[in-house]
């Protein structure tokens, strides 16, 4: 539990860490200020605006209600699965070349 933090802040931090994101990455993905994300995670902002929660949930690819839930986030529930859908239409050589040039973010 985060010292002095809120459940929402703990939830966001937990999901963010499951994604192996820094606060900086989350602020970029959500289009929020570092002060806002840090404030929510530490509990200084105990009741963030729903619009802010929606932006965080969208960035983390979770349902906004998950941020308000009392259930513990799990890797399966909070992280989008990896997809190789881009590989289906290519030939084996192209697939291997694309795979070598890809990152987990792709």
CATH architecture assignment: Orthogonal Bundle
Gap between N and C termini: 32 Å
Radius of gyration: 16 Å
Provide the number of structural domains.
Answer: 1
What is the overall number of helices?
A: 7
The CATH H-level homologous superfamily: lambda repressor-like DNA-binding domains
List keywords for this structure.
mainly alpha, 7 helices
Which helices and strands occur, and which strands form pairs?
Elements: H1 7-18, H2 23-30, H3 34-42, H4 50-60, H5 64-68, H6 75-78, H7 92-101
Helix pairs in contact: 1-3, 2-3, 2-4
Give me a quick take on this structure:
The protein is mostly helical and 106 residues long.
Structure characterization notes:
The protein has 106 residues and is mainly alpha-helical. The protein has a single domain, classed as lambda repressor-like DNA-binding domains (434 Repressor (Amino-terminal Domain), Orthogonal Bundle). 56% of the residues lie in helices and 0% in strands. Helix 1 (7-18) packs across helix 3, helix 2 crosses helix 3 (34-42) and helix 2 (23-30) crosses helix 4 (50-60).
